Amino acid sequence: MSPLASARTTGLDVLRWAVSEILVSGTMLATAATSPGGAQGGTTAYPPDSDDEGLRLAALVDLAREGDAEAFGHLYDHYSPAVYRFVFYRVSSQAVAEDLTSDTFFRALRSMTQFQWQGKDFGAWLMTIARNLVVDHYKAGRTRLETSVDDFSGHDTTTEGPEDEVIAGLTNEILVEALQQLPEDQQTCLVMRFLNENSIAETAKVLGRTEGAIKQLQLRAVRNLAKLMPEGVR
To answer: What is the mean pLDDT of each run of 10 residues along the chain (234 residues)?
Structure first.
């Protein structure tokens, strides 16, 4: 399964469930961080990198800082799917997302010698670059392309519980269009937490906030997202 397909069959479903909880009961469990399966949102949907993998990536970063093109290529292979997903759900255009992902790594390559490990994570650093590029993209007044329904379809929307009917009305197109109406920091938070499956700690690094502040931002963002749902869904 492709990285984008994986994101749409997990992250979007969880986000739709979270919004449905708000619409049905006006509340949400575990500070907007609990999935239908009961997994706590403080962890990613996939196991974190092992110690060996973390050491391998750190070694690759150090080599890339010294000008090793092959090492940077390995970093690109590892991080580009996550960067692409992050950008795609902000711009809703495959072509623009590909361009901004390429720009992210081009800027990273030019700035590798400036990267410092002090309190930073390389993946979070890349996401910060990508976030700035997305902000610049909209500041430049470029036309926001219409969301393609095909990009967000093709997964099972069935669930159990009183929110079943609400979820059925929450199409991915409606959800993503509403997501893009949120303030920039709330967009970034939801995309990273639900769609890109970043941890609270990783999201905090990109947004420059504490983990506690991210939990509150996430809850506020999901509540605001629910308010943006069409009348027929609410």
So the answer is: 48 77 59 37 38 83 90 93 90 89 94 76 90 88 44 41 54 82 92 86 91 93 87 61
Spatial separation of the C-alpha atoms in residues 11 and 129, rounded to whole Å:
22
Q: What is the DSSP letter of 34?
A: B
Long-range own/partner contacts, residues 80-83 (CB < 8 A, 24 or more apart): 80/105, 81/3, 82/3, 82/123, 82/127, 82/196, 82/198, 83/126, 83/127, 83/130
51-65 and 122-139 are packed helices; what angle lies between their axes, rounded to 10 degrees? 60
- What is the gyration radius of the CA atoms in the chain, in angstroms? 18
- DSSP per-residue string spanning 175-196: HHHHHTTS-HHHHHHHIIIIIS
